[in-house]
Amino acid sequence: MALQAFRDELASTAAALAAPGTGLLAADESTGTIGKRFDAIGLENSEENRRAYRSLLATTEGLSEHISGVILFEETLFQDSTTEAGGGPIVELFKAQGIVPGIKVDQGVEPLAGGLEGESWCTGLKGLAERAARYYERGARFAKWRAVLQISSHGSPSELSVKENAWGLARYARTVQEQGLVPIVEPEILMDGEHDITTTAAVQEWVLRTTYEALAVNGVFLEGSLLKPSMTCAGAACPQQPTAEEVGEFTARTLMRTVPSAVPAILFLSGGLSEEDASLCLNAVNQAASGAPWHLGFSYGRALQHSCIKHWAGSDLKAGQAALMARARANGAASLGGYVAGSEPSDDSSLFVANYSY
Ligand code: 13P
User: Fold this and answer.
1) Which residues touch 113 (CB under 8 Å, ≥6 apart)?
2) Domain 2-334 has what CATH class?
3) Is the CB of 358 within 6 Å of ligand 1?
4) Ligand 1: which of 57, 269, 305 to mutate, judged by most atoms within 8 Å of the beta carbon?
5) Is residue 188 annotated as a catalytic residue, yes or no?
6) For residue range 142-180, what is the model confidence (pLDDT) as tens digits?
7) 3-class DSSP state for residue 294?
8) pLDDT by residue (tens digit) across 65-114?
9) Known catalytic membership, residue 186
10) Helix-, strand-, coil-residue percentages of the chain, each rounded to 5
């Protein structure tokens, strides 16, 4: 019943997030994870520093040319900006720029009882409807839930982990749609491992097929939903690393085989790719999938913010914002298949972190 009332709004929110030449800024690092970023620049993980950093993001002029939506952590959704930024709610600064606010609603992963070593399930269903209603009230219009799967030489992912994570994503998606939030469905396949790209492709087809079956059983309204997958890459320790063109071709094939065309957009995570590689691979996906039914954009965390945090270094607002804009422009162009390699500054360090948690 409730979903029915939100159908038109869900479809128009999803369409706004799927605007050509744009993607999402995933700024929903948990307090622990943003602390690791701040450690790298020697900055204390205090509420004031988190406020200052997220205010920097929200006041970056021109960001909405390339960024249609921002994913926030709960603290940020309810946090006020710095006095330099006006002191009002951070979420209102994003909205004033025309950037749609979203919210991470999962509560992290836990070991999967009955699963193989290292396998997890994603928590956060209890009380989700009430939380989603509160987030909507505060201005959020979409949500994110990150389920994590691994490929390993000891047989992961198991059937149990594929089914459990698909089901959790579907229960979450249905629940938040009933409260007016567009669900981002994120079945991340970690880059950890030595497997080659064909192995990733086979596993990812299985994971996506299972996820869309679960979404169908739960009556999820696909036109009001978005997919956030990893690109079809080789494991980070695989000796045969594919080129960006190969990643583009495999990714396009995986998605064409599994994702319903009613889904308005597929917004990739960066998953540990360097800033430049994340742009090159997205560009290659768009070139390989020309004529695809969905918008193929980005929802990057590390690959949009790495240089930004480094250049900001806790105090240089303008340098941080310039670095963020550079990667936003690069990925905006890549989502149209028109990015020219090296045409925007980046930091070429690998952003891969083993067994990454967000
Ligand atoms: P990365 O782009 O850093 O992988 O993060 C995106 C994200 O939101 C993962 O849930």
Assistant:
1) none
2) alpha beta
3) yes
4) 269
5) no
6) 999 999 999 999 999 999 999 999 999 999 999 999 999
7) coil
8) 999 999 999 999 999 999 999 999 999 999 999 999 999 999 999 999 99
9) yes
10) 45, 15, 40
State mean pLDDT over 337-343: 95
For residue 268, give the ligand 1 atom closest to its CA: 2
- What are the residue boundaries of the structural domains of the chain, listed by start? 2-334
Residue type, 257: R
Closest CA to 272 of 243, 242, 239, 230: 230
Residue 217: predicted pLDDT: 98
Query: Which residue do the tokens 């996820």 mark?
Result: 211
Give the pLDDT mean for 345-356: 78
Q: Following DSSP, what letter does each residue of 217-234 receive, concatenated?
A: HTT--GGG-EE-PPP---
- Strand (E) or helix (H) holding 17: helix 2-17
- In 3D, which of 250, 161, 252 has the Cα closest to residue 210? 161
pLDDT of 337 > 60? The answer is yes
Residue 69 Cβ < 6 Å to ligand 1: no
C-alpha 306/C-alpha 320 separation (Å) is 10
Tell me, using a 6 A CB cutoff, whether residue 146 lines ligand 1.
Answer: yes
273 alpha carbon – ligand 1 mean position (Å): 10
Are residues 144 and 104 in contact, defined by beta-carbon separation less than 8 angstroms?
yes
Asked if residue 334 has pLDDT above 60, the reply is: yes
User: Does 263 contact ligand 1 (Cβ within 6 A)?
Assistant: no
